[in-house]
């Protein structure tokens, strides 16, 4: 009986030692894989270049456009600024929103030449003494909003 007990204990000790060897091998193997992964990341990090860009999503079609920057395209800064203000002018002049009507009216009159300004104010203002049925204020009032999307200038 003592011999069986000693053999049982011996088998338990041998089993524990073999498990410890297996765990040790697994630990050092995973340590080696982790070291290789860290080394790969460190080696490849200088090769990564972050390129920032702006994406615009079309509301109606869902198409995604990448908006270019001035340095990537052969455009002068003045040309980019002029295109921006021209698109803003067209947006102010052609849109109609009852809540923003005074702001768009003021911006359009500030950006317009005197001849264009007088034509634009006549379109909004009613002549004295009679009702201007073509005035945008009479046509739309506060029931409609008109906004335009400018694709190219």
Automatic annotation (TrEMBL):
Q: Which Gene3D superfamilies match?
A: VirB8 protein
Q: Topologically, how does it sit relative to the membrane?
A: Single-pass membrane protein
Q: Which UniProt keywords apply?
A: Membrane, Transmembrane, Transmembrane helix
Q: Name one Pfam family in it.
A: VirB8
Q: Which GO CC annotations does the UniProt entry carry?
A: membrane
Q: Where are the annotated coiled coils located?
A: none
The Bacterial virulence protein VirB8 domain covers which part of the protein? 6-127
Which cell locations does it reside in?
A: Membrane
**Where does the UniProt entry say this protein principally localizes?**
membrane
User: Know the name of this protein?
Assistant: Type IV secretion system protein virB8
Species this chain originates from: Neisseria weaveri
Provide the organism lineage as a comma list.
Bacteria, Pseudomonadati, Pseudomonadota, Betaproteobacteria, Neisseriales
Q: Which gene encodes it?
A: virB8
